[in-house]
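hiii so um. not sure if this is the right channel but i have a protein structure encoded as C-alpha cells and i wanna go backwards to a sequence. like what aa goes where. can anyone help
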C-alpha cells in the first residue's frame, strides 16, 4: 500500500533543508544527499530507506520507529514503510534525524559549530 503524493511531500520538506539535494538513486527512486553523504532515499510513495550510524539505527529500531533495512538488515540503514498519511510526517522526522547527524559530522570535519533546531526524542 502507498500514500499518493507521499514522495512529493517528503521531497519538498527535505529539499527545504540547507545543503540537501535530490538525485536519482542507483537502485531506483530519489536519494537525498548532504555533501557526499546520503541521508536517505525514497522509492515512490511507499518505502523510505534512511542512513544512520549503527548505534542510532539500533535505537530507532528498538523504539519501533522503523525496521531494519529490508535488504541489509545488519547495516546502519533502516526501512520505513509509508502506509498512511500520518507516516509522511514520521518519515520526514526520521530523515531530519539523519540530516542533523550528517550536519554534525560535516561540522566536526570542517571545524564548524552546528546548532540543531530539532530536539530528538525517540
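sure thing!! here u go:
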Amino acid at each position: 500500500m502507498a500514500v499518493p503524493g507521499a514522495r512529493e511531500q517528503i521531497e519538498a520538506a527535505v529539499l527545504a533543508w540547507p545543503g540537501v539535494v535530490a538525485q536519482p538513486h542507483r537502485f531506483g527512486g530519489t536519494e537525498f544527499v548532504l555533501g557526499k553523504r546520503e541521508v536517505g532515499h525514497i522509492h515512490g510513495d511507499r518505502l523510505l530507506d534512511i542512513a544512520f550510524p549503527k548505534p542510532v539505527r539500533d535505537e530507532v529500531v528498538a523504539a519501533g520507529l522503523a525496521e531494519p533495512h529490508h535488504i541489509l538488515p545488519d547495516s546502519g540503514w533502516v526501512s520505513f514503510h509509508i502506509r498512511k498519511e500520518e507516516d509522511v510526517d514520521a518519515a520526514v522526522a526520521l530523515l531530519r534525524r539523519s540530516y542533523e547527524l550528517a550536519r554534525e559530522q560535516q561540522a566536526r570535519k570542517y571545524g564548524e559549530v552546528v546548532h540543531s533546531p530539532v530536539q530528538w526524542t525517540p
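oh and Residues 86-110 form the longest helix (25 residues).
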